[in-house]
Each structure stands twice: as structure tokens, then as C-alpha cells.
Amino acid sequence: MQTLPGYLSDLRVVPLQQLLEEITLSLTAEWPPFSSAEIHKALNKCNNSSVPGPDHLSWRYLKRILYNEGCMTNIVNITNACINLSYWPMHFKKSSSIIISKPNKSLYDSSKSFRPIVLLNTIGKLIEKVINNKIQVHTICKGDWGTKLQKNSQLILQFVIMIQLTSC
Questions:
Q1: Which helix (H) or strand (E) holds 71?
Q2: Strand stretches in 52-113, DSSP E
Q3: What is the pTM of this model?
Q4: What is the predicted pLDDT for the residue at 38?
Q5: What is the sign, positive or negative, of the torsion defined by CA atoms of 155, 160, 166, 168?
Q6: Could you tell me what percentage of the chain is helix, strand and coil, using 3-state DSSP and rounding each to the nearest 5?
């Protein structure tokens, strides 16, 4: 029998096949549709001074645009369609990279003196934030071990990989 680290002591160790069966059984619930309130909640947490991606759309302008009910409805529909169709538009995958020099380096003749920053499309980032929030609230937190998952990104990654394995 395997022993778990102290912070996981109240989790039980089960064979992988049994765990996959339990996860499959627990994933039968419907995915609730997204709402404009969820979009607004995620949008309000975004920093207006962030640099926009290749779409050149800043958070400040996106917030103004989404005050229009018609525009918000379109974003909600796109978000729901991404989930319902299991499709992520190519437009959201486009990115641009910039290289920033690290401060206080004596020489800038090595790659270690710089760091890359990847800028993604703003609407795609917003939809990712909304999906991430829903996964945390409606999927992971409902399990008896959900609070452990929220505090451990490695466990969350393992959980998502197991979900992917069961859906193949």
C-alpha cells in the first residue's frame, strides 16, 4: 500500500482503473451554459494596463465593448459554442512574442539575460479565464477531494489528464 504525503493524508489510494471508472461516473453531469455574469466577473479581474496581443484589443476597450448587451451576448454564445463543439478557434491560438531584457544584468550577450513574453488574443484569454473559473467551481470543487486540488496545481493537471484519457 502506498503512503501519501501529509497534505494528502485524507485521500485514498486506489488502482488507476478504479479511479478512471469513478471519474467517468462523476463526469455525467451536464456542463451548465456560461452567462454574461461569469464573463463580467472574469473581465473585472483583468488589468487594464496589460499589453494586448496580436488582435491589438486592450482589456480597457474590451470592457467598454462588452457593456453593450449585444456584444456581450455574442461573447457568451462564442464561449458556449467553444465548449459545446469542443472547438478552439484558430484566431484564439495566434500569439506574438516579445523578448524583454532582464534588469540588473552586467552583460546582455547570453540568452539567460532575456525572457520571452507571449501575448495571446484578448478575447481568447477572456474565454480561457471563464472556462478555467467554471472548471474550478463546477467540476473540481464538487469532488470530496476538491479543496486539495485547488491548492495543488500538479494534482489539477493530473486530474485534467485523467479526464482527457477517459474521453478518448
A1: helix 69-84
A2: 95-101
A3: 0.64
A4: 93
A5: negative
A6: 55, 10, 35
